[in-house]
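User: Could you check the structure of this?
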Amino acid sequence: MGGTKMFAFAVGVLLLASSVACTLDPERYKEANTATPQPIKRVVAPGEMQFIGKVKLDEFNDMATGEEMPVQGGQIIVAFSAEPDSLNPLTDNSAVNSYINSYVFNSLLLRDPETYEWEGSLAEQWLEEDVVIRKNGEKLRGTASFSGPGQTGDVTLRTSDGESVPIRRADVQEIHRRAAFTFFLRRNARFQDGHPVTASDVKFSFETIKNEYVDAPSLRNYYNELESCEVLDNYTVRMTYSKQYWMAREFAGGFPIMPRHIYDPNGLLEKDPQAFGKQFNESQHNRSPVGSGPYKFGRWDTGMQVVLTRNDGYFDEKRRGHLDRFIFKFITDPVASLQSLKNGDVNFLPGVTAEQFEEETKNPEFVHKFAKAEYYTPSYTYIGWNMRRPPFNDQKVRQAMAYGALDRQKYLDTVGYGRGVVVSGLFYYFGPAYDHSIQPYPFDPEKAKQLLLEAGWYDRDGDGLRDKNGQPFRFELLVSSGPRMRMAPVIKENLRKLGIDMTIRELEWATFLQNISDRQFDACILGWAMDLEDDPYQIWHTSQSENRGSNHVGFGNTETDRLIELSRTMIDDEGRRKAFFELHHILHEQQPYLFLFSTPNLGIYDKRYRGVKLYKVRPGYDLAEWFLPKNGSS
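Assistant: Sure, the predicted structure tokens are below.
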């Protein structure tokens, strides 16, 4: 999947019909594929450098010679710490769902994980155009150039037919740069049941996302301005934005294409959108998805595993998998996960605890058999404060939590064995949108006490707890089962010294997410998996605080909404990042989250596997590249 929808993950283990209008000839556009790659520049952060670039093959495996040739066959068993609620690629907002479905579904485009440049997937070619809107309402597509400096003066629009259309600036109402996308689908792409992938499937998938009754508010917000999806012929589709948007290509080409004949066999989407939404949200295929990817769904043993099998008819030979099966096992206990690896019941742990990585995996026998890999992918963990409820509706209280809840650097140094970086804001620490001039609040319990006093919280009755308006300072921290539980008692003890009583409520992942979506929490520990640079709308715009959106803490106001909305239209990287820096500053002051840290994935896998590359973008690996050499078996 190519889009950058942000995914919630369990902290500690990381693992996103129209009538035919005309017929276009793809041959005409072979030299007009203007989807110019935009490589990410290197970003140097204090103390470390992280950037997109070539990844060494089998870097952590000292048994690999580099000369082994891929062969077909075998399987790999991967352990995840959480089980998805469903395998619907639109309605489940978990990282586990995204990782599994990345092998089942394709989008129109994909990004190369090393260069970060766009490539065709279901679309073999695509055309990007500006949209010029005349004052009389006429819309024209093409590549706009200007007679004056910058984007001033009269406009010359070069169309896809090679025609140059002069337009007086006085006749122009708006110009939307890179706002129209024409995709030419591969003729040989098929869904896993043998049906061809056509433009009508693309339109169906688009309209499903746009349907307000489909339980996908976090994804839908990226498509508010994608106003049309036109079927031009069976293998050509055009999407047009009503505004320019810096991530337009990302989302026009990045959503999963779902088979209409499977998910809407009776055409209910057009006849009754509300009934379709209910049907789609509860579809049997939420547990047995059908896509067009390199692997197809095999079975789901609830509470145990999901099995995928290789799609031998996959259209893209370059990305066709080598292994026969992927088995994703759900093991919530990290101790049990590591033991399963040692026993041979699991072949790959994408993430273990730092203590396991350092202390429990260093004997010679283990090191001889398993490769240990440390690799960053964009993410951060946080404590979210429900700003709808007292006491966290008070900024001073939230700031006090930042100073007094957790010594983040000490926690990284001790529990994390020195790995990771403390973060101060909403963007990826090693990405281009993070403002390194904003330093995290230091651990300072005395400052925390001062802020609590200023907010009116002090011990009036001598019972050792601060109180206000007759209510003691008590709250509940919601935590999902797993390694993050180690953090909760430390926070509890620190807050008890401040005169605050925090109770800890541990839930399994699905129930935990349900409580978050229903806003039934005071505070929670969670994390976001993301891309190098993301649109903050999904998490921070006030519209996303309702209808089970991702703004579960209830942050935002008119000013932050304006800043977020403005940033979306800024296709100039420098200008947009200035807006992002301003938002970073506001969140640092407001503290809707206590931003904790970004830590590396600590993965371990069986050294029998070859073709292993660990990338710097999520999820950090592509199992379709892995293989067992001729003398290996699984």
